[in-house]
Please model this.
Amino acid sequence: MRTLRAEGKEESPIMSETIDMNELEQNAYRESQQDGFAEIALGITLLAYAAFVAFRGPFTAALVVALLIFQARGWEILRARCTYPRVGSVRLRREKTGPVLKGVLAYIFLVAAALVIGLAVFGGLRSPSLWWNWLPFFVGMMLVGALAHAHSRSGSARYPVFALLAAAAGLLASLLNFASPETRLTAYLLAMGFFFILAGTVVLARFLRKHPASAVEAIDDRH
Amino acid sequence: MTDTSDNTEGRQPLTDIDRIIHEPARFLIMAHLYVVESADFLFLMRQTSLTWGNLSSHLAKLEEAGYLDIEKGFKGKKPHTMLSLTAEGRSAFRDYRQNIQQALDDLPD
Model:
């Protein structure tokens, strides 16, 4: 029996297969991200942040800004050269900036407030180094937020796993002893950066093996 | 005054059902395009499991109806065609969903 589920709210019989608009949208998102480039991009960004925390200075600051501005375009060019056509191409609908920004700010506020309360109750608010020590956990929770958003848009099972790892690694980095607070944060960012690059490379390798370019040449020629 | 008896209300949406979209393959194409900004031919072919010829002919019908916008260009050195729903197409798809939903909801159990 087919059913039409309009935005997952109501269900009425119409044809003979399930059409779930929300699922279709999630599927399109998954398809657009299955080459692993998003994970590699996140990993590179985290490495740039690590370089900024470790070295400071205008060069590393410029590197971070340049990555934020030009990275998306760079990956698009790389996609066109390396992974297109294979599975085709899809442009996702842009999310409305206002609600997304509000959600991000509310999430940052909630995590920061929870951390302040947690530190006040369990650690006291005396030592400034205490704040620095818990920065990796805070960054980890920011990654959890971003990955939870990616999961809600894609329904992909790999994002909750990544989120769990990011939070656990943040907690571990905050609890372990390091020479300085900067070293602690740098180590966490480096570890997560390399992890996401590795994860993205594995996803990319699987994608290239699963979807050989030769399989679509015939279609491409005709089109 | 318009007749607003129960029977008429129940049948009214059926006359409004868009025959272009009502064909299952075209409905599927429009549903896939509705949830994205645009997609290329290969993406739609994989998602809908339609053959090249079948998809082409349905796309031509949708374009003819003014529901589809076709943007030809290049991706690197490869020719690349992106397809998207026009504002009219989006509106027609929304209306179709609403009408079919209403028509089915009005049926007695």
In short: The interface with chain B takes residues 4, 6, 10, 12-15, 19, 21, 24-25, 27-28, 31, 77, 80-81, 84-85, 87-94, 216, 219-220, 222-223 of chain A (CB under 8 Å). Chain A has nine helices and four strands. Residues 169 and 188 of chain A are 7 Å apart (CA to CA).
